[in-house]
């Protein structure tokens, strides 16, 4: 009996110690092994936001004061919401911690942010070609194919993650632009607005496509092409993951007479036409539930866009384009993830468009990886991309002491490195200009291996080896993934 009572007391003591240790771990190290089914949020505090408005940060959270969260999902929920705040791209670091609330099954959520520099006057040095690889190999790293000038960007101007940007460049292109964007202008933080205007002129322009390579015309004595773009857009974000955008745009483009009459009479659709002016309306719908936008490991991203070029009978271009992009990211394990992405575009009418408005694969993000040196023009496009990524490096790289003494915000660089295996399939349909371009109107395939680097969970770059269906291999540098 004495031995039995001893065992009961011993087991009771161990049980009390276990519960106490769980509560202690909860309050100090965020290992949420609580005996409660749900945890209720008493309050949310925000620290470190000297400029940023607190409601902007709270807007990104999927929980509110008074909400209850399953205890087994608490840590994942906090990590997921930390990433949402990181995706604002206005903080160097974000921590989300908890402390015990009014009762053992209540907590207080503490959000601590370290704000970035918000003003960046900087020199401009940029490449004018479609990507780094084209400039490096096909144009022999020519400095004549670069822009230089000045840029001023002010982030978080009013504390609402708004941005103003002024740019002036010379060199290959002369460009002047101004842009202002704010994601919130109303009390509910659901409506945003953007204004932008850009004027540019250059002495060289692509006038045709031959063997899936751009053919350029240039003349040092006059500007080959001049462009003006003005736009205003309104965004509506009624829920955390959903955004509707409405854009009005005006474009005015003129080219040299030599191009319109001699080199490519179909540049703007008819011989002797030296200008194209039109107004456009664009509606887009976005569902973005990715954990980290720069390099997602889990989540969905869906984008639908309907663009109508030509709103008035007097507009020089009438072209409708429908676009759909769907990406899914599977988190297979702590270090392993799978990316699948499909995008497509369809154009109306099916009549022959001006050469200037016939771009498809190879421009911007519409790319079959491994075909960086080629363009595939056309009315329609389709791309399927898959990547398996495994993380092998994840740590903070610290600045030297001399830097940290002079810069209180320069604490460390959050860095991850991944190995990725990539497979891409793509197709560009060109009923009108495809005769001299063998990569158009056929399925393209490429596979390869990449080294991906991610900094601050905001910036990503890649160095990749790719092999294509044509047998061409190469090493490519990408700054947009």
Task: Give structural notes.
The chain is built from six helices and 22 strands. With 481 residues, it is mostly beta strands. It folds into two domains: 2-115, Roll (Ubiquitin-like (UB roll)), CATH 3.10.20; 183-478, membrane protein fhac: a member of the omp85/tpsb transporter family (Porin). The strands form three sheets. It has a 16-stranded antiparallel sheet. It has a four-stranded mixed sheet with strand order 2-1-4-3. Mean pLDDT is 88; it is low at 1-33. Helix content is 14%, strand content 49%. The protein has helices at 2-28, 54-59, 74-86, 132-137, 257-263, 401-406, and strands spanning 38-47, 68-70, 91-100, 106-115, 119-127, 146-155, 163-171, 173-182, 191-202, 204-210, 213-218, 225-236, 242-255, 275-288, 299-309, 319-331, 336-348, 380-398, 412-429, 444-455, 459-468, 473-478.
What brief labels describe this structure?
Ubiquitin-like (UB roll); 2 domains; Porin; four-stranded mixed sheet; single chain; 16-stranded antiparallel sheet; 6 helices; disordered N terminus; 49% strand; mainly beta; 481 residues
């Amino acid at each position: 009996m004495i031995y039995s009572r001893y065992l009961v007391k011993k087991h009771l003591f161990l049980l009390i110690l276990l519960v106490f240790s769980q509560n202690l771990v909860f309050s100090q190290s965020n290992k949420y092994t609580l005996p409660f089914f749900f945890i209720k949020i008493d309050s949310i505090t925000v620290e470190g936001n000297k400029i940023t408005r607190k409601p902007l940060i709270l807007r990104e959270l999927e929980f509110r004061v008074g909400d209850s969260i399953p205890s087994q999902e608490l840590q994942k929920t906090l990590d997921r919401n930390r990433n949402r705040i990181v995706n604002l791209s206005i903080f160097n670091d974000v921590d989300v911690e908890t402390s015990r609330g009014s009762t053992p099954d209540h907590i207080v959520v503490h959000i601590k942010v370290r704000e970035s520099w918000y003003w960046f006057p900087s020199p401009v040095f940029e490449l004018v070609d479609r990507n780094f690889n084209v400039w490096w190999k096909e144009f022999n790293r020519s400095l004549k194919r670069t822009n230089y000038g000045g840029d001023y960007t002010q982030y978080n101007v009013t504390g609402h993650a708004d941005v103003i940007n002024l740019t002036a460049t010379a060199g290959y292109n002369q460009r002047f632009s101004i842009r202002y964007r704010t994601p919130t202008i109303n009390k509910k933080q659901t409506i945003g607005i953007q204004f932008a205007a850009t004027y540019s002129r250059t002495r060289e322009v692509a006038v045709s496509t031959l063997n899936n390579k751009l053919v350029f015309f240039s003349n040092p004595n006059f500007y080959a092409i001049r462009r003006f773009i003005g736009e205003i857009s309104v965004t509506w974000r009624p829920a955390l993951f959903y955004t509707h955008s409405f854009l009005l745009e005006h474009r005015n483009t003129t080219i040299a007479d030599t191009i319109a009459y001699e080199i490519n009479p179909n540049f703007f659709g008819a011989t002797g036409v030296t200008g194209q002016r039109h107004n456009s309306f664009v509606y887009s719908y976005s569902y973005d539930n990715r954990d980290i936008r720069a390099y997602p490991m889990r989540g969905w991203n869906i984008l639908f866009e309907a663009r109508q070029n030509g709103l008035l009978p007097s507009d020089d271009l009438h072209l409708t384009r429908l676009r759909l992009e769907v990406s899914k990211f599977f988190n297979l394990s702590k270090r392993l993830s799978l990316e699948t992405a499909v995008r497509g575009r369809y154009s109306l009418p099916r009549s022959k468009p001006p050469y200037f408005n016939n771009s498809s694969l190879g421009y911007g993000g519409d790319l079959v990886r491994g075909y960086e040196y080629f363009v595939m023009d056309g009315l329609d496009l389709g791309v399927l991309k898959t990547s398996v990524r495994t993380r092998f490096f994840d740590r903070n790289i610290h600045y030297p002491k001399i830097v940290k003494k002079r810069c209180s915000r320069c604490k460390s660089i959050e860095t991850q490195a991944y190995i990725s295996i990539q497979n891409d399939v793509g197709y560009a349909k060109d009923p009108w200009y495809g005769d001299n371009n063998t990569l158009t109107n056929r399925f393209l395939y490429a596979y390869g291996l990449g080294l991906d680097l991610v900094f601050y969970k905001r910036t990503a770059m890649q160095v990749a080896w790719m092999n294509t269906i044509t047998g061409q291999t190469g090493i490519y540098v990408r700054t947009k993934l």
